[in-house]
Amino acid sequence: xxxxxxxxxxxxxxxxxxxxxxxxxxxxxxxxxxxxxxxxxxxxxxxxxxxxxxxxxxxxxxxxxxxxxxxxxxxxxxxxxxxxxxxxxxxxxxxxxxxxxxxxxxxxxxxxxxxxxxxxxxxxxxxxxxxxxxxxxxxxxxxxxxxxxxxxxxxxxxxxxxxxxxxxxxxxxxxxxxxxxxxxxxxxxxxxxxxxxxxxxxxxxxxxxxxxxxxxxxxxxxxxxxxxxxxxxxxxxxxxxxxxxxxxxxxxxxxxxxxxxxxxxxxxxxxxxxxxxxxxxxxxxxxxxxxxxxxxxxxxxxxxxxxxxxxxxxxxxxxxxxxxxxxxxxxxxxxxxxxxxxxxxxxxxxxxxxxxxxxxxxxxxxxxxxxxxxxxxxxxxxxxxxxxxxxxxxxxxxxxxxxxxxxxxxxxxxxxxxxxxxxxxxx
Length: 427
Known about the structure:
It is built from 18 helices and 9 strands. It is α+β, with helices and mostly antiparallel strands.
């Protein structure tokens, strides 16, 4: 791709999403030294960075990840991070090759994260946290090829015995996935997690906020000790019913304020189904505020630890941690003996509360499923999967506008006022 002004103008997310090639083709990102997007006829789009090694000037190239993982704004930030490291003498391609010769469990997990999880799992950061918190301290020093089932069981039982059986289950699942991948790559000869059962019984979470809790939650967000971006994400989760990860990754070009529509591309949707979210006046007001509050592409921005001046999308875990930390100050009752919130809420409960609220308003379950972008409903029959091309946009808009009106009544309908822009405007 040339460096002309025209090519720079058109090299945006929409252009990249529409790229189709007959043969494997490399596209250079204008204004981003060494950054390359490789597109295959099958539609695979992979970012890499071409550079010269500082030690000897040898030309190198390292794969960074897929377009699904790194949108245009995110890859620019990642490219900047790598170029800073390379300028200091780092050799990312060499480090990746060396990692292939890793011997310990810790080294194997790092390979898995770099070579697979980051490119194919939206939740790779959660795997990384699990590995850092529990796996590496306990068994990271073990030889990857010699890890025994008894070693894994001892680690999992330790997590369970500290009162975290569900976390033990999550740790088992993450380690099992990593070893399954490593087995397929011939990095190990067996999966030591095979045959190990969960350490605790799994229960389906059903937590829904009551009307009083909604009112308290909404008003207390004003003074909560968290960033404005996190407050915005939480409000959008309750108003739109969308997943917190999809909200955190929303970019400016995905919002059409004139038509009051949010378009979630397939690479960001959890179920890989592109999704259109009609925006109620409440949601429009929230997004208008977000657009005024940041000059980045990301409307719910976070910050890079390595490059604090480089904007990136908010990590969903940051929202979860902030909410959990602030619940006691938001009016949720605390057990005096333990100091813990008695019945805490999580960000996903806001999505469930929206769905429940829609049902209470008489919205059909099939419409609610489409508001939530549940694949099980959309493709449960051959008729719905293949023949029905209707997008249910009118029905979804009616549902979300009815829910916004209900929220307005709940939060300010009893003589209360709110200094948040959204509830009193647009409707």
